[in-house]
Amino acid sequence: MKKFDKIYNMLPQTQCKRCGYSDCKPYAEAIFFEKEDINRCPPGGNTLMEKLADYMGLEKKPINPQCGTPSEPKLLFIDEVECIGCGLCIPSCPVDAIAGAFKFMHTIIKEECTGCELCISPCPVDCIKIIDRPLKLSWNKKRAENSRLKFERKKNNQLKNQISTPSMNHLDNLKKKYIKNEL
């Protein structure tokens, strides 16, 4: 296995963007090619940082607080009573772990949720909640690998279909179009 692949595979593959990169692969590339700091991955936490430091012969340092607090990936769920079926959360999920259709209730497939929290921001009614991940769903290498494969599949499908991930402006425009603000 090449050194880059080893670094990439060490990352938790949550695709959360907290490191400041668009997903785990560009962060791995930045570490390998551009000597980016190895302390920018809160889901990997200090354990990941220490593994990277040992592997690359670098100094160990705590997770950069600008990237977030180190913690195991959480689990998200949609409060089905509050969900209005707007669908704004669906395109934000990097691994397609949200099921539902426009004007119908949505749900997060807990076995596939990476805990990235990217679905929270687009939700106009704050019906997406964060909970601790149950032991039977704890984040591990197998889940990380499945997440990476699902993310790459989604990315490839988007390229094939020339569909891009909607920008926040696009999501805001959809909110204004389909959701009436009641005061």
Explain what you see:
There is one protein chain. With 183 residues, the protein is mostly helical. It has 2 domains: 3-67, Electron transport complex subunit B, putative Fe-S cluster (3-methyladenine DNA Glycosylase II, Chain A, domain 3, Orthogonal Bundle); 75-178, Alpha-Beta Plaits. The chain is 34% helix and 7% strand. The strands form 2 sheets. A two-stranded antiparallel sheet has the order 1-4. Strands 2-3 form a two-stranded antiparallel ribbon. The longest helix is centred in the C-terminal third of the chain and has 20 residues, at 141-160. The radius of gyration is 17 Å and the shape is globular. The N and C termini lie far apart (57 Å). The relative contact order is 0.15.
Short description:
This protein is mainly alpha-helical. The protein has helices at residues 3-10, 24-34, 45-56, 141-160, 168-178; strands spanning 75-78, 98-99, 107-108, 128-131. It folds into two domains: 3-67, Electron transport complex subunit B, putative Fe-S cluster (3-methyladenine DNA Glycosylase II, Chain A, domain 3, Orthogonal Bundle), CATH 1.10.15.40; 75-178, Alpha-Beta Plaits (2-Layer Sandwich).
